[in-house]
Amino acid sequence: MTATIKMECRLSGVLTDATSATCRVVDPIGTEVVADVAMTKTATGKYEYLYDVADTALLGRYAAIVYATVSTHKYAEHTTFEVDWK
């Protein structure tokens, strides 16, 4: 399974390329499994990271935290996804 983590960067409501866009992934027990990896630009102001969930991954809710710098503004957003199979 692959979890797709997406982010949009906007400045004054307009999609704008980030100077940097990174992602962290934390498993259900709080262990960081991905540390500040660069996200892939898919279009102006749009980024994604594909997280390959291992067959041995813990079941439960994972957290994804994305960070972006746009101009002089720094942003962070949090989302979650579920791993519910073995």
Can you name the CATH architecture? Sandwich
- The poorly predicted ranges are none
H-E order: EEEEEEEEE
Q: Please describe the biggest sheet, giving its number of strands, its sense, and whether it closes into a barrel.
A: 4 strands, antiparallel
Kindly provide the name of the CATH class: Mainly Beta
CATH superfamily: Macroglobulin (MG2) domain
Shape: elongated
User: In the residues, how many domains can be counted?
Assistant: 1
Number of helices: 0
Q: Structural class of the helices, strands and pairings?
A: mainly beta
What does this structure look like?
With 86 residues, this protein is an all-beta fold. It is 0% helix and 67% strand. The protein has one domain (2-83): Macroglobulin (MG2) domain (Immunoglobulin-like), CATH 2.60.40.1930. The chain is built from no helices and 9 strands. It has a 4-stranded antiparallel sheet, with no helix packed on it. Strands 1-7-6 form a 3-stranded antiparallel sheet, with no helix packed on it. A two-stranded antiparallel sheet has the order 2-3.
